[in-house]
Amino acid sequence: MSDETPGSNNPFDYLLNDLMRTLASNNVKASDFIAQFSLLPVSEPQYESNVDPLQRVKYEQLFEVAKLHLVNTDLLASTSVSSLKLELVNPRGLVDVLMKQWNTYISILAETLGMSSSPMPMPQNLGIESPIAMVVGQLGNAMSPMISGAQIGSVLGHYCKDAMRALELSIPMNSTDKTILVPYSVSKFAKEWNLDLDQVMLWTLVQEMTTALVLGIKEFRDHFDVQIRLHLADMRADVNAMMDKLREINPTDPEALQAIFADPTELVGSEMTEAQRINYANIEVTLVVIETTLNIVSRRIATALFGEFYLIEEASRRRRIDGSQPELLLGRMFGIDISSRVIELASEFANYISERECQEDLAKALLQPEYLPTPEELEDFELWRIRVEA
Question: What is the domain extent for residue 298?
Answer without folding.
Answer: 52-88+181-234+273-390
